[in-house]
Amino acid sequence: MFNWVKNLIGYGQGVGGCLRCGDKWSWKPIHSTYYSTTHGCFPLCQPCWQTAGPNQIQRYYRELVKLWRRNGSFYSQEFEDAIVAVALEEKGFLA
Questions:
Q1: Which residue ranges make up each domain of the chain?
Q2: Average pLDDT, whole number, for the chain?
């Protein structure tokens, strides 16, 4: 009901959020996908992760890597493909 207020507060604090629904991490549960034993990423909140299909998983995980690149990080296409594959496998879309 007051999600917009919570999101405004999170935006003011510089908090990122879900790439699908836009809700901020300051109040929304995240879904972490670990692509190594010590590193993970979270482009989607838990509710969006639960309802996402394979095309949405690919879209938002690729979008996250593109955001990292725009912020000055270098990640290869192979790295991007690997993160997408890990997320798809975790979701059960890859055998």
A1: 3-91
A2: 85
